[in-house]
Amino acid sequence: MKTALVYDRINKWGGAERVLTALHEIFPEASLFTAVYSPKKAKWAEIFPLVIPSFLQKIPLMQEKHEFLGTLTPLAFESFDFSGYDLVISVTSEAAKGIITRPGTAHLCYCLTPTRYLWSGHDLYFPKGSLLRSISAPAVAYLRQWDKMAAQRPDVMVAISRAVRARISKYYGRDSQVLFPPVEIEKFAPISPSIRGNFFLMVNRLVPYKRVDLAVRAFNQLGLPLVVVGKGSQERKLKAMAKDNVKFKGELTERELADYYRKCAALIFPQEEDFGIAAVEAQAAGAPVIAFKAGGALDTVVDGQTGVFFEKQTVPALAQAVKNFGKISFDAKILRENAERFSKERFKKEFRALVAEIDGKL
């Protein structure tokens, strides 16, 4: 079965990119199509036999300034020709699902989330009453219309979590099945609980929807040590807000990150994630998760056994959850067993079964 992979843009490393590398292990000969490709920022993509960017690649600086692509992105994905393929797999949180395939070519969409800035996160990206919201309104209206239409094109829609499945139903009016993304849990073996430190950990890009600001304000109030791993547009603002008990470590190597997971008291997870790989990585290392009760955390965290939930994104709610956490004894074995439900080998096995089912219907 000749297979192609499609992804929104190749210019960073994160959870979606881990999905693509796992898919490469299943389909090692598959080419990877994308809107724009930055070899400098995405060295991981060198594993693919061929990376094929769209015509947008020819526009200066677009490989790294993709936020300016806007209304051109739909045309970029519609311009690809997949007539020589039996199966096309789009991995997307934006426009890659909008590819056009001919009869005889199956299209499986692995949906990370319906386009966030158009739907569930629209008010975060375009605050109510702002000039940006007014100026962008025509483009948003066009993109919403196209996005809904594009979401009907895949033959099969697969969601990464129950929360994403609900969004697909709400915004696109489509049914989907859930297949959890891969987590390389073998890299995060737990250590003796006696070695754990007293600090709490956050592992996030420092952008608004990750709600790092909420954690900083809560720990300013609690006075407990908080280590923040990651970089992003809000870094300067967050550092100015934080008291001395909150430390920012920037970006770490995978080995350094694993060490922090193994030694922290718990991972702080105040955002609503589509899935949330960090929560699984922490549990794989024996660290409980203090999580906002929404999104992917509902799939990955077991309240009272592998973590503690809080129900409102407020400083008092998070602060109280941290206090409640201190009253519970967590078993590293149970944490590890829960994380193993999301292993990469499990993902590959389930994905192969899904493709076999599609192949049987071709």
TrEMBL record:
GO MF term set: glycosyltransferase activity
Chain segments annotated as coiled-coil in the UniProt record: none
Protein origin, superkingdom: Bacteria
Domain Glycosyl transferase family: 197-340
Matches recorded under PANTHER family: SULFOQUINOVOSYL TRANSFERASE SQD2
Protein name: Glycosyl transferase family 1 domain-containing protein
Phylogenetic placement of the source organism: Bacteria, Candidatus Woeseibacteriota
